[in-house]
Design a protein that fits this description.
- The structure is a single chain.
- The protein is an all-alpha fold and 1068 residues long.
- Helices cover 67% and strands 1% of the residues.
- It has a two-stranded antiparallel ribbon with strand order 1-2.
- The longest helix is centred in the last third of the chain and has 38 residues.
- It is elongated and about 170 Å long.
- 36% of the residues are buried.
- About 8% of the residues have low confidence.
């Protein structure tokens, strides 16, 4: 091995020799240094490459002798470096670093190390006290720092070298070197230079073994490092520089200020020794002054604890923990800021190694640190309401996160403090209230409840299953809300959370306004968190006789649920309730259902109706909450959808509505909920609504003077009619089979064969009758016995019995009506009293109701026709209503009545026609014709002016026609064409036509009335096929004649036959 090493060393020497000789010749013998610089650069660069290659392959070949040999020619360059380019100096420094690091190592002489220290310091920092004119390149400065680091490590690795660094004669140069290094740290042009200077400082801290020397340089080092780590300069510094600076600060403080290093000084402070301290550095006065300065420096450095960089935060946490551990006594004045920072910087998510000391471990070792933690948490708790009012969301979130970590330490260390718990409840309440008041609620337009149509379409869609936030709901406040919820879920143990929730719930009962809403929300979130968490290990290990915390939380939740039910029921009260309180009550009820699943079904008796009424709320957010609540409750209780939930519990809801109707405690949403339930359940609910219908009738009797209220009640009755008319159990089967068809059909044409058959039948019947009379005359020509036998007592009794039997059959009562039929008949009879209501919309809805119910009740004529008789007078009067849309509905209702009652209306139609209906029908037609002709006349008068004209399309009876209009009045002409068939007069006339068609189709009318109706509809027969068919079913010849007279029938061609002359009928 020695031979191989010697051989390698010789080979390496032979490789170095010519290069070293060349460098020496060029530096010593060359008269023009600048002229030889180019060759020198090439040779030195080659030399550095050879050294680097050899070190990477086998560094043991390079020893101190070869280093001395190589350094000799290089020293000439260093001696005259000002005469050479800076590039040559940089290459020389690279060679020096290799020589120091792998050649001399710890064997470097003290004199040489001092000279190189001064030289490298000069390269990096320049001449002391003079401003450098030409700054060296960044690469050269970085190489000089790296070489200086290697030099200090080599010098400090031996006792003699370390002693030489702090020798009295070397202190000035060492001080200048440290100052230069610190300047590079604070003012380094690149992050690599700063990192290189920090590495050099670390090497110095290790190399300097004299405590007094380190203490001397400590203030300057701490000051420079704090400048780097202080905001806002730290924001511009790269993360790796910050981490390295924090680590260096920790090392210098623990090396100088650790309790082990200053134990003697601490003892002198406690014993108040009067020992002389002149000429000494490490004195109690020094310790006191240094501690104060370090506290100021740490106060500025630890502001970095709010940075987003996890690496920087981890380095800062390590700084705090190490200082609290190793400098516990010496930096006792800094304990509060170090503890607070360590708590803020603690990372709860990432588990630390068991071998790594944490703040919790130190608090268990030093009880005074536990007191500091409790004090810090108390300060955080009391300052939270003030901090959450900041306009900066980061400040709010940071304050909440700090309190979360503080509560973690309180729980981990099992710190019990009633003052802290009381202050926490008040702080949470005040903070949440401040956030609620500061939250900018989105602009929300409240819709009147009476204008909302309540149906289940909204809850049958696939919507969200999670409630949107009610408080602190803005998008910009999401992070703050999330942090606050995280805090509520991590406050103390389960029992502590329950206690806090109980205190908040007590406050809710006694307060009002935003603070009540905020406290209610906090109590719910804390109870929800405590019930959702598994029991703590302490609960299992607690062998005391106290009650189980989970039972206490259950009782608190029951109180919260009871309060929520009261809030839901309070919506019917006159006092206005904050909608946010109602929304939170919906969330509490939904959470209760999610916990008990199908066991929640009995609770639906109390909560289902109030929740459903919120679907008609005028507040969109509250309505959305109700939708989500119903969907969630239905799923929790085992129903496939909300419709099944409502149907299965409809009896409870009907009872709730009935109770409110009986006490006249009626709101628009109450009637809407009832209407929705009827629509959902369909016809099968109708028979059970007799009490509700009776309550509605009573309410109508008492409040008939309130049109809107009456209209809301009739909307329920309308829904009852719509669903009841579709019921399969509305009529008995016998009644269904006896239903009559009143529509008039065209009589078939009688053929000759049919006439012959009729005559033959008549002759045959007459012959049979004559034959029977002849036989009767032969047998008994005249009566020879009384018409009736003598009456006896027995015969009279038999006669009486026989008389009673047929009378019983005749007077047999009709079959009973179904409950649904009775309800619909009662509603129908009630409409006559409100068809004269001052509300036109109510009149229209009642007319539509009649149009719906009449076809359903018509098969049972015995019950239906009396209703027709009672409704007829007020129904006919609606034809002459002042509102056109009411008239249109009246025409439709009367047409449906004609279809249902048939010939029963014969005399009524006749009487009304000659009294008013005929004249009114002609007036309606005249108004429609006048409206149409007025438009045409305007266009015709404008078309006669001598101006440039435009061709404007106009709709007429014959289709689309072109009319001339002046160009100057073109726009006016187009706009004056009116609404056409959409005009009120045209729509009313169209409805009247439908009524007339219904009268002709279903009612037997006199010929005079028929002729007038035919005249009214005559001009529409060509296009109105339904009118033509209805009229032809009564008298086709009259229809044909009228159409012929109006020119609607094309004349037939005169037939041609030989020797026969046909008359020209069409000209007669």
């Amino acid at each position: 091995m020695a031979g191989n090493s010697s051989t390698a060393r010789n080979a390496f020497f032979q490789e170095l020799k010519p290069r070293c000789i060349t460098i020496n010749n060029l530096t010593v013998r060359a008269s023009d240094k600048r002229a030889a610089a180019k060759d020198l650069i090439a040779v030195v660069e080659d030399l550095s490459a050879v050294l680097g290659r050899q070190v990477s392959s086998d560094a043991s070949v390079l020893d101190e002798k070869l280093a001395e040999y190589i350094f000799f020619p290089l020293s000439n360059i260093l001696r005259n470096q000002q005469q050479y380019p800076i590039r040559l100096t940089e290459l020389t420094i690279i060679c020096l670093r290799i020589l120091i690091q792998h050649g001399w190592k710890s064997k470097i002489s003290s004199d040489l190390s001092q000279q190189l220290l001064i030289f490298l310091t000069f390269i990096v920092g320049g001449v002391p006290g003079q401003e450098r004119k030409d700054r060296i390149p960044e690469e050269t400065e970085l190489e000089a720092l790296r070489t200086l680091t290697s030099l200090i490590k080599a010098a400090g690795s031996s006792p003699t070298g370390a002693a030489a660094l702090v020798d009295a004669n070397a202190i000035p140069s060492l001080g200048h070197a440290i100052s230069t290094i610190l300047d590079s740290i604070t003012d380094g042009r690149t992050s690599d230079i700063q990192l290189g200077a920090l590495g050099t400082l670390d090497a110095l801290l290790i190399a300097i073994r004299d405590q007094a020397a380190l203490a001397t340089f400590l203030p300057g080092i701490v000051s420079s490092l704090s400048r780097v780590l202080t905001l806002p300069a730290a924001l511009k510094t790269q993360r790796r520089v910050l981490i390295s600076a924090i680590t260096t600060l920790k090392d210098v403080l623990t090396r100088v200020m650790s309790d082990i290093k200053v134990m003697g000084i601490l003892k002198k402070q406690t014993t108040d020794s009067d020992e002389k301290t002149e000429g000494k550095v490490l004195t109690p006065a020094w310790l006191k002054a240094t501690t104060a300065k370090i506290k100021l420096a740490l106060a500025s450095v630890l502001k970095l604890r709010n940075t987003d960089s996890e690496e920087v935060r981890s380095a800062l946490e390590r700084l705090c923990i190490d200082l609290l551990d190793e400098c516990h006594e010496s930096l006792a004045e800094c304990a509060s800021i170090l503890v607070e920072s360590a708590m803020i910087l603690a990372d709860e998510e990432n588990e630390k190694s068991v071998l790594e000391t944490s703040l919790t471990d130190l608090a268990r070792i030093y009880p005074e640190l536990g007191d500091t933690i409790k004090t810090t948490v108390y300060n955080w708790v009391t300052s939270l309401p003030r901090l959450v009012q900041s306009s900066d969301d980061r400040v709010k979130q940071q304050a909440i996160r700090n309190l979360i970590k503080g509560q973690h330490f309180i729980t981990t260390l099992q710190v019990d403090s009633s003052i802290l718990e009381d202050s926490l409840a008040a702080s949470l309440r005040d903070s949440a209230t401040a956030l609620v008041l500061a939250s900018k609620s989105s602009s929300m337009t409240e819709i009147p409840s009476s204008t909302i149509e309540l149906n289940m379409d909204v809850v049958q869609r696939d919507g969200p299953s999670i409630f949107p936030p009610v408080l602190i709901a803005q998008e910009t406040e999401r992070s703050t809300r999330t942090a606050l919820l995280d805090l509520l879920s991590k406050i103390g143990s389960i029992s502590q959370q329950g206690k806090l929730a109980g205190d908040l719930l007590n406050y809710v009962r006694e307060s009002t306004g935003p603070s009540q809403v905020a406290s209610y929300w906090l109590a719910f979130e804390m109870v929800k968190s405590s019930l959702s968490q598994p029991s703590d290990l302490d609960d299992f290990l607690d062998l005391s006789l106290e009650a189980d915390p989970s039972d206490e939380n259950e009782s608190i939740f029951q109180e919260l649920y009871t309060f929520s039910v009261a809030v839901l029921d309070s919506q019917a009260e006159t006092e206005e309730v904050d909608w946010r309180l109602q929304a939170l009550a919906l969330e509490v009820t939904t959470f209760a259902a999610s916990r008990t699943k199908e066991g929640f079904r009995p609770e639906l008796i109390d909560v289902l109706y109030p929740i459903t009424t919120f679907l008609g709320s005028g507040i969109p957010k509250l309505r959305d909450h109700a939708i989500i609540s119903l969907n969630s409750i239905a799923a929790s209780c085992g129903y496939s959808n909300v419709t099944d939930l409502i149907i299965d519990n409809v009896d409870y809801m009907v009872n709730s509505v009935s109770l409110r109707l009986n006490t006249f405690d009626i709101s628009p949403t109450s009637t809407q909920v009832l209407q929705m339930m009827i629509k959902l359940t369909g016809p099968k609910l109708i028979p059970y609504l007799d009490d509700v219908i009776a309550s509605i009738f009573a309410a109508l009797d008492n409040y008939h003077g309130y049109p809107l209220f009456v209209q809301s009640l009739f909307s329920v009755l309308t829904e009852v009619v719509q669903q009841g008319s579709q019921s399969d159990h509305l009529l008995l089967d016998t009644v269904k089979s006896s239903a009559k068809e009143h529509k008039k059909s065209l009589q078939p044409v009688v053929t000759t064969e049919e006439i012959c058959g009729i005559l033959s039948n008549r002759i045959e019947r007459r012959e049979k009758r004559q034959l029977g009379d002849d036989k009767h005359d032969e047998i008994e020509p005249h009566l020879k016995r009384p018409w009736k036998p003598a009456k006896t007592a027995e015969s009279e009794d038999e006669a009486c019995e026989g008389a009673e039997e047929p009378s019983t059959e005749v007077e047999k009562p009709p079959p009973p009506k179904t409950p649904t039929f009775k309800i619909l008949a009662r509603i129908t009879g009630l409409t006559q009293h409100y068809l004269t209501s001052p509300s036109p919309t109510l009149r229209k809805s009642l007319l539509d109701l009649l149009a719906t119910v009449c076809p359903a009740l018509s098969p049972d004529e015995e019950a239906f026709l009396p209703l027709v008789n009672s409704v007829w007078p007020v129904l006919v009067e609606r034809l002459y209503d002042s509102e056109p849309f009411v008239v249109i509905s009246a025409c439709k209702a009367l047409g449906t009545l004609c279809q249902s009652a048939g010939d029963f209306l014969n005399t009524r139609i006749k009487t009304e026609w000659w009294d008013n209906l005929g004249k009114w029908s002609r007036k309606v037609k005249a108004d429609a014709t006048q409206s149409r002709n007025k438009t045409r006349s305007k266009i015709d008068t404008r078309g006669g002016k001598q101006e440039h004209s435009l061709l404007i399309p106009i709709r007429s009876r014959d289709g689309i026609e072109g009319k001339e209009a002046s160009s100057s009045k073109a726009v006016e002409a187009v706009s004056s064409t009116g609404l056409g068939r959409f005009a009120q007069a045209a729509q009313v006339w169209e409805a009247v036509q439908e009524l007339l068609i219904a009268i002709v189709s279903f009612v037997q009318i006199d010929d005079d009335v028929f002729d007038q109706i035919l005249a009214l509809l005559g001009d529409t027969l060509a296009t109105n096929h339904s009118a033509k068919a209805a009229l032809e079913a009564v008298d086709p010849d009259a229809v044909w004649l009228l159409m012929y007279e109006c020119g609607m029938v094309e004349p037939m061609k005169k037939p041609v036959l030989d020797e026969v002359a046909f008359v020209e009928l069409w000209n007669v």
